[in-house]
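Hi Y.,

Following your request, here is the sequence exactly as I used it, all 162 residues.
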Amino acid sequence: FEEPLLSKEDQVIDKFDTLIFQLSDGVRDTEAMMIDPLTNDAFIVSKREDSVRLYKIYAPTKLRDTLQAEFITKLPFNKIVAASISPDGTEVLMKNYDHLYYWKRSGEETIPQLLQRKPVELNYVQEAQGEALAWSLDGTGFYTLSETVKNYKGYLIYYRRK
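Below is the corresponding structure, written out as tokens. Let me know if you'd prefer a different format.
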């Protein structure tokens, strides 16, 4: 859907596209999706394997009934619940419930090539069930968000770039 204007208050989003995709190697629990702003390709990361799986959905030239998410590689992480690529396409974040991983692109490196490198592990405030992650639009930092669970209210946490 078209990004809403922040200056308007009561907005209704009624024009949007629905993307339906199928993993090339069967059904898997997946929660993390990121879109590369340099190529418009989407990447899906599975959750429940000992080594999660990375899938690529090539930027569609036109929307079809079902897009194919091609298995690309395994990554040495587990329980990945969120991922985000910076607005300029040069940085990637991924997280599970306990860890926050960071990569910086060099040159013409693709997202799969980048994720094969060892990440930097960032300091992370533990959340009860932190399942959301997104870069700020201006690239000065990123946000995490937890679900509200029993005895814990979810909060939006901002991490400013140092």
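The two ends are 33 Å apart (CA to CA).

Thanks again,
Q.
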